[in-house]
Structure formats: C-alpha cells, structure tokens
Amino acid sequence: MDRLFGTVQEYAWGSHTALAELTGRPAPTEQPEAEFWLGAHEAAPSRTAGGGLDEVVAADPQGVLGASCAQRYGNRLPFLLKVLAPQRALSIQCHPDAAQALDAPAGTYADHWPKPEAVVPLTPLEMFAGMASFEQIVVRLDSLGVPELQSVVRSARNARELLAGILAVPTQHRPAVVGRALAALDGQHAVPQDEADAIRRVAHDYPGDIGLIVLMTMHYRVVLPGSYLFVPAGVLHAYVRGVTVEILANSDNVVRAGLTPKKINVAELLRIVAVDGRMVAEAGHRDGRIVRFPVSAPQFRLLRIDPGDEPVGVDVTGPRIVLAIDGPVQVICDGQSQQLDPGGAVFVSDGEGELQISGVGTAYLAAPGH
C-alpha cells in the first residue's frame, strides 16, 4: 500500500476554492483549479514514494495489476479517479467507444481506448447531458424565430443533421444568431425555464459561442449529491457547476461540440455522437456502511465507504485507489496502516489483501469493473 499524491489541473473553468479546501490547502488559490487526478495516466500520473504510478505499473504490471487485469488492459491501469470542480461550464464534449477510437484517422485521438465515465456529486452538479428527441429539438429551435435556425430545422431529417446544421452556421454570423436566440428565450416555453436560465448563465462566459445553440438541443439536469450518473461513450455532455467525484476509463480521448476556443472536429463528432443518449441518475446499493454504485463499464467500479469507529472490510480485489473526503479515515491492509486526511489517497496493488477502513470521514474506492 503506497501513499498516492494526485495532480491538480489548472484549467480556466475551475474553482479557486473547492479543490484547495478538499486537500487542506489555503484558499482562494491564485489560479483556478479544475480537476484533481488520481491514477496512472501518462499526462498527469500520481506520485508515490517509488516514482510515478505509471512507472510503478510499468515496472511490474502483473504484480501491480494482477495477471488478468494486465492481460485484458495491455499492462495499463484501466481506470482514472478524479474530483472535478467546475465554476463555469466545460466544453460540450463526447468520447469514442473502443471501436471508434481504433477506426479514427491517425492523430485524432491520443490512444485507442474508450472513455466512458460516471459522476457521483459531492455538491449539486449542474450539467447538460444527452440530446433531446428530434421532435423536441425542432420545436425548440423553430420557436426561437431565428431565420438561420429555422432554415436548419427545415432541412434536417434527424437529430444528427440538426447538429450538423447548427455547427455549419458561418463563424462570422454566429454572434448575431446566438444573440437573437438568447433574446428569444424570454417569453417562450419550448425550452424549460430552468434550462433557459442555465443557458443564459453559460452565455456570460461564452458570448457568441455556437455551443449555446447546441445546449438548446440537450437535456439540462441537476444531479444531487450521492447519486450516480453514467455517461456512456458518444453522449454529449457539459458539466456547468458543482463539485463531483468522477470515475472513468484511463483515457483522455475527447471530441468537442462547443463552448471552446479550440477547433471542433465536426466530421468526427458526427461520426461518434449518440443522438439518443438520455441517462438516468441512480442510487447506489447500500450494503451496511458501504455504498456500491452500478458497474457500468468493465474498466471501473466505484464504492463509497462511510466507516465510523469500527473498521469496515471491503471485499474488492485488483488494483485499488482509496480517496478520503470530508474527515480523516484510516486504511489498513496486510498489517500496514495509513491515516488519510481529506484529499489524501493510497494505491493498493492486486497482490495485497482485503482492505479495512475506519474513521469519521468518507472514503471512495476505485477499482476495475471486471
């Protein structure tokens, strides 16, 4: 069992307080902090006393991951655990499945992995996720009375063609089109009021961005703390505001659809996007002091442990990462003990035994799904 030191990613959409408070550092921070990574991804591997976790895995993949996990995932830790802290919206994005990543033109993606993900919020998480039905989108866009968007509606035969038409609006016309669409949100009822209010808030940070029209094609929701929401490959999503634990396959493959200054790969987006992606937030299954969230992807599973004074045995094997939240927890494994303050983490190899966890805090445990 090794102490694990995660990497804080400073992106413009992050919070100046949330991750610092989580990890016991002074707040507010000078730079916005968006993501806290725990894992072995080569872009930002966590550190152990023996070096980067990616180096630890590479030095003895079968010993660290276990023979079956190492064989199935090509000597790669299959999951990545994060805490996200958006203060303003991330880009609208989706991720490929394994076949799509493999079939993509060279240079499109960093690796050939899928990138399914799931969130368990620590605070209410505002997000847009999944596209509305073609019929709903037609009514929404037509009701705005913007000629350019009405033209898109008339020429599209399905939701994919609607998305293509929105992204084909010429760059020089986008600020005017977006401005008229935002103004038209007042006084119409095709876009629900809470969704219209959220789009206007996002517009403050992304004025004139065509992604604001894309948001009008999507479902807005607030995911409550403790709920589990799985985001499959291909589903459009944009996290807006909140703090959440995120578990995902160990990949950074992404295609954007707006709310970004970066170039949008429209052809690849239209190839991989799932236009029928409606998700349902679920409660985990409580098993005593352990909450087991659904195993939605083979690369990962997530548990929450609310231990208390008496140690709780956690019967999950394989490579594991334990992250402490809220208060201190103690992790015991094979005679070793680690006291974790909030934001502290450990990595446990496959060959090590069952974990026992105690303390007044909450722990999240990540492991392979299968």
Description:
This protein has 370 residues and is α+β, with helices and mostly antiparallel strands. Among the domains are: 133-216; 285-367, Jelly Rolls. The chain has 12 helices and 24 strands. A 7-stranded antiparallel sheet has the order 1-22-19-24-17-16-15, with no helix packed on it. A 6-stranded antiparallel sheet has the order 2-3-6-13-8-11, with no helix packed on it. A 4-stranded antiparallel sheet has the order 18-23-20-21, with no helix packed on it. Helix 7 runs antiparallel to helix 8 (159-167).
Quickly list its features:
370 residues; alpha+beta; Jelly Rolls; six-stranded antiparallel beta sheet; elongated
Measured by DSSP, the beta-strand proportion falls in 25-35%
Main sheet: strands, sense, barrel: 7 strands, antiparallel
Average pLDDT over all residues: 95
Poorly predicted regions are: none
Q: Give the helix proportion (percent range).
A: 25-40%
| Assembly form of the protein | single chain
Rounded to an integer in angstroms, the radius of gyration calculated over CA atoms is 22 Å
> Biggest sheet, strands in spatial order?
1-22-19-24-17-16-15
Instruction: Figure out the total of helices.
Output: 12
Instruction: Tell me the structural class.
Output: alpha+beta
User: Termini distance?
Assistant: 21 Å
What would you call the shape?
Answer: elongated
